[in-house]
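User: Please fill in residues for this 487-position structure.
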């Protein structure tokens, strides 16, 4: 199935990526990939350990002549975001990813590719397996559940790692050296409602929002892309305010860390309002599509008649829901005043579900400043609580503060310029990397992040650049050769 992937250069990297992508590895269901990685380490005769939360650590001694170098921790996460197109018949829990080559890109058919962070994992596997790559003493740390809570990094105990330097291989631009990242907190708003009979002489419609790009709710939030949940809410709000529309169901978005691409709702309108509703909704749809024309040219908002639902939401709660989602902030909240072009704080309204008397809304708030993260989370929380929702803040994790005096940063900065004839972009990012959490228990460890170019992470449009992987692979090998010596 992936023979053309295995033929790509560098073969050690792409072959390990193909091996990994044959193993189902959704977040919080990593049992098979943990066993896979444990067996891999044992097959090489290397010291292999699985800690109490499921992180895998494989240790490899320094190659001859490298014993005086500082010990290095290579780190990537085993889990991947599972997103697919609605028309894709794919079972993430039982199927391997179906990859193909498209010019300079490796893609997956109808699903996420898993290059985030699978290419980092594959890099570590290839280095561990090689008898030819020069490197200092290594600890390969494969963490679990990075994408939906970072529980692997959070559960890693102090003292387990002995390395001096940590190389996180989870950055998605090959000209970027990461020195900091945002922290985050999950917001879950939920409440119940009474179901009522559908008003007499009504017609039912299915409303669909689709064709949006989606993407990483941290790295791509600055682009101002369409959020299917916010767009759907806007359409439903107009129908409610002007025509007394009633909601039966909503199913929008997916994972917290993915900008929602699609949403569906089932609604009813009194038959006498049918023509006016269709005309007014058509105008609103044209307005929304025009607003997003340059950013989301494939956006479709469709309204078609459907089978009558059995029940609809009670009117009072419906009004509170629509107003609460309308008022909840989505997108960039504040840009960093200190680092040009860096998003400091944002929120992603990731998932909205309404069915069988239950409403649930999932958000992910990110910030590189703890106080601003708390400020925005409390703002969103307050709006939902005033609408009668119960709100839970959970899964909070810290950001990673930049250290411009990092010794390993100096090594990477000089090497990149020497190898590529230009300076790297030394930057903090708005994504959540595990460095902030790991640094809490290992405060003296010198950390840096870099990786190959990946586009469309957390969406079925995810793709990895082949030429960039070649550039990145050479860079990794040079970094390992040039690690500073122990003092």
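Assistant: Residues filled in for all 487 positions:
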């Amino acid at each position: 199935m992936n023979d053309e992937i295995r033929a790509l250069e560098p073969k050690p990297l792409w072959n390990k990526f193909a091996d990994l992508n044959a193993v189902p590895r959704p977040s919080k269901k990593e049992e098979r990939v943990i066993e896979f990685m444990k067996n891999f380490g044992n097959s090489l005769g290397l010291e292999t350990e699985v800690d109490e939360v499921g992180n895998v650590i494989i240790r490899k001694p320094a190659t001859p002549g490298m014993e005086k170098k500082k010990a290095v921790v290579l780190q990537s996460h085993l889990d991947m975001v599972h997103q697919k197109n609605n028309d894709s018949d794919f079972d993430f829990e039982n199927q391997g990813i179906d990859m193909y080559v498209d010019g300079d890109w490796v893609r997956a058919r109808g699903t996420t590719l898993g290059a985030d962070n699978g290419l980092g994992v594959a890099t570590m596997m290839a280095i561990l397996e090689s008898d030819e790559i020069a490197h200092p003493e290594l600890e390969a740390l494969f963490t679990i559940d990075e994408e939906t809570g970072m529980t692997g990094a959070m559960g890693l105990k102090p003292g387990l790692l002995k390395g001096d330097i940590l190389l996180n291989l989870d950055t998605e631009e090959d000209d970027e050296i990461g020195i900091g990242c945002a922290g985050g907190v999950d917001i879950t708003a939920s409440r119940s409602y009474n179901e009522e009979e559908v008003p007499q002489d009504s017609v039912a419609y299915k409303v669909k929002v689709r064709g949006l790009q989606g993407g990483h709710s941290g790295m791509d939030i600055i682009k101002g892309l369409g959020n299917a949940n916010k767009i759907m809410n806007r359409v439903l709000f107009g129908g409610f305010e002007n025509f007394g529309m009633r909601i039966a169901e909503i199913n929008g978005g997916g994972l917290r860390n993915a900008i929602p691409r699609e949403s569906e709702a089932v609604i009813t309108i009194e038959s006498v309002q049918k023509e006016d509703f269709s005309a007014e909704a058509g105008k609103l749809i044209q307005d929304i599509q025009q607003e997003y024309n340059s950013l989301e040219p494939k956006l479709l908002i469709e309204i078609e008649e459907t089978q009558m639902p059995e029940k609809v939401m009670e009117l009072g709660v419906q009004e509170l829901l629509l107003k609460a989602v309308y008022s909840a902030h989505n997108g960039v909240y504040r840009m960093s005043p200190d680092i040009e072009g860096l998003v400091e704080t944002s929120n992603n309204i990731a998932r909205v579900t309404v069915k069988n008397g239950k409403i649930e809304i999932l958000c992910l708030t990110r910030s590189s400043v703890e106080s601003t993260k708390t400020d925005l989370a409390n703002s969103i929380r307050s709006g939902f609580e005033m609408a009668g929702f119960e709100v839970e803040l959970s899964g909070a994790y810290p950001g990673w503060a930049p250290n411009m005096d990092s010794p390993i940063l100096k090594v990477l900065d000089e090497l990149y310029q020497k190898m590529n004839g230009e300076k790297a972009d030394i930057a903090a990012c708005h994504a959540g990397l595990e460095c902030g959490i790991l640094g809490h228990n290992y405060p003296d460890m010198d950390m840096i992040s870099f990786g190959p170019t990946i586009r469309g992470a957390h969406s079925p449009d995810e793709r990895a650049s082949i030429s960039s992987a070649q550039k990145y692979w050479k860079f990794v090998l040079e970094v390992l050769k040039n690690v500073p010596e122990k003092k």
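For context: The first strand starts at residue 47 and ends at 50.
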